[in-house]
Amino acid sequence: MDEEALAEELRQTIGELVRAVRVVDTMPPGEAAALGFLDRGGPLTTADLAQRRGVTHQSAAKSVKDLIGGGLVRAEPHPGDGRKLLLHITDAGRARLRSERARRAGALDAALRDVFSPEERRRLRDCVALLSRLTAHLAGK
């Protein structure tokens, strides 16, 4: 397999894996993504969330509205621009995000145990380190 074919197969397989794991999610993907960004990056504006998610401002605003309504995010006036709101994840939002992540990890763990032998899981563990390095490179870290 040449390098281009490897890159395409990896892209396709990882995308399918992510979609398969998300089947266990209990919240819409846009809301889960917004909570993740707020959890990892601290307070953000709706425009920041839209840019990071690669969606329109309107799409991000809908997710934000639903998250605020559910008590998972709170908004306060932006200290540098009173026309904007700064969004913060709440304790309830963090708990919900942890629950979603645990559900995904649990489903993935069960599948790993069903599909792979202990030796294959050890080999996969080595591959995770390689994928982490690749991700860091692509993210410019």
From TrEMBL:
GO molecular function list: DNA binding; DNA-binding transcription factor activity
Domain of life: Bacteria
Pfam families xrefs: MarR_2
Assigned keywords, A-Z: DNA-binding, Transcription, Transcription regulation
InterPro entries: HTH-type_Bedaq_tolerance, HTH_MarR-typ, Tscrpt_reg_MarR-type_CS, WH-like_DNA-bd_sf, WH_DNA-bd_sf
All residue ranges annotated as the HTH marR-type domain in the record: 3-136
Transmembrane segments: none
Protein name: MarR family transcriptional regulator
Source organism: Streptomyces minutiscleroticus
